[in-house]
Structures are given as structure tokens and as C-alpha cells.
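FORM 12-B: Structure-to-Sequence Request
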């Protein structure tokens, strides 16, 4: 496999890994916000802010998860197409 292709593969794998780490960080933050909502008065500003944080993290984590799956699928398709076209690993 040629050097530019190796570099592209490496960058793509690092990017996919970064998406996984971002997803995990958001899920951890979501859990922390959820725990906070359980420890404050339901009618307080702190509760509502924590609930908004929880929902924000949930939404963003879902988006990152979908993005990761889509990019991973595209990467595999392109890599397989390249290998079928004469590029060998």
C-alpha cells in the first residue's frame, strides 16, 4: 500500500477514534447531569439547568453516534473499492 493511502487510513482511523471518545465523554456528562437532577429540588433552577444539560448531551451523543456509523461505513466502502481496484493492504 502506498504512503499517501496509509496516511489517509491513519487519519481516518484517528478521526473515528476521536468520535468514539467524544461520544463517551458526552454519555458521561449526561450521566452526571442525570445524577444531579436526582439530588436537587424538582422545581429549582438547578434541576432545570441539569435537565437541559442531560438532554443536550443525549442529543449530541446521538448525533455523534450516527455520524460515526456513517463515516465508518463510508470508510469501509471506499477502502474495499480501492482494494478491488488494485490497492493492496
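FORM 12-B RESPONSE
SEQUENCE OUT:
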Amino acid at each position: 500500500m502506498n504512503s499517501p493511502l496509509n496516511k489517509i487510513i491513519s487519519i481516518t482511523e484517528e478521526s473515528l477514534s476521536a468520535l468514539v471518545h467524544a461520544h463517551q465523554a458526552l454519555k458521561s456528562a449526561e450521566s452526571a447531569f442525570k445524577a444531579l437532577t436526582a439530588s436537587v429540588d424538582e422545581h429549582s433552577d438547578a434541576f432545570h439547568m441539569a435537565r437541559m444539560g442531560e438532554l443536550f448531551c443525549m442529543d449530541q451523543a446521538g448525533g455523534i453516534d450516527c455520524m460515526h456509523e456513517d463515516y465508518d461505513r463510508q470508510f469501509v466502502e471506499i477502502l474495499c473499492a480501492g482494494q478491488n481496484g488494485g490497492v493492496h493492504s
